[in-house]
Structure formats: structure tokens, C-alpha cells
Description:
The protein is α/β, with parallel strands linked by helices. It has seven helices and nine strands.
Amino acid sequence: MLFGSHLGSFDALRVLARRRPGLQLRVVLDRGQNPVLTGLFDSLDPALAAGVIDGGRPGAAIALEIQHALEAGALVALLVDRALPHEDTVAVPFLGRDARLPLTPWRLALALHAPVLLCFGLYRGGNRYDLHFEPFLDATVEGVPGGVPARGARAARLRERVADYAARLEHHARRTPLNWFNFYDFWNDDGPHADPPPHSATAPAPAAGGAGDPVHRRA
């Protein structure tokens, strides 16, 4: 699975499908909430648009289609830095304050035993984008470490992973702040499904995932 964000251009992932014709890329996108991006996919890459997994459907239907796509050998890409209304979140340090990020993508990756790569398509001026891919989570290992852990242990491990992701997002946001497209109250802590905010300070960004160094490609 490819986990992206609203930092840079998610559409730059089209380069992957174009340069590697045998690669299946399925993008999870709420067609109703993202009409501009949906229209862009439709006009620039009809083949990729045809494979979009509509994120506006009920969660079980989305999870089932993602599972089928992974079993067919496809890469599934989705944005993981914003929560939907009523979605479970966790508070993690981000740019000096706790911000709430969604838990659903991480639960899904672990449940499906799907490895996770972080991806950032960062604009560098003109017609140039730098694509960064970072090995981040090997869910085939983390999903089954000696059996099913206690509920509290699962929650703590999920929070650690989301916090590590937030640190990587912060790392790239600090390096390329004009790439961050954020137009809502990112640090709003009023969500009904929020957990008590932990007392922790912002830590320096960890190394990228431990499964290898970041992979950089230029588009």
C-alpha cells in the first residue's frame, strides 16, 4: 500500500503507471468530495481513473475492494493525513502541537498484512516533481508478532506507528512548506472519536521506516 498526504501532488503518482506499464495502481478517492482531482484523473489518465476505488462508499465495501486489488497484485494508494467525519483518530505530535490523524488506514494495512510505503510527490518548480518513496511498515511481520496482542498493546502500537508517520510528514513539510495544501483546522481537538491527548513533546523525525533508505525518483 502507498500512503500519501496533502503534502505535494498525489497526482504525480501517475508517473509510476505511465513508466511501468505492467504496474497496477489503484487510487482510493472519494469521488464526491474530490471532484477536481477526480476530473483531473479522468482527463489526464482515463485508465487510472477507471481503477479508482471510490472512498465515498461504506467502509466495508472499500476494505473489500482494497483487499481484492492487493490480491490481484495492485498497488493501492490513499491519503492518510486527514480523518473523515466520525472516523477514529489518534493524537500525535505534529509541528509543535498534537494533531489528530486517522487510524483506519493503519488498521486496514495490519488486517490485510499489506506492507506500507510512504510516498511524497514534492513540487520543485517548473515542470519538475521529486517522488519520494520510503519503506515504512512490514505488516506481514507486525500484524502477527507471537499471536494477537492485548487490546491496549494493539492501541499503543498503532499510535506509535501513526506518530512515526506524522514525524516523517513533518520532516518533509519543514523542508518544503509551500507544498503543504492545508485549508482547515488541522489541530482541532474536538472530534467525538478522539482519545485523550498524550503528554508528549515533539520528537525529531525518525529514520524512514527501518526497512531501507528512502527511494527518490524524479518526474
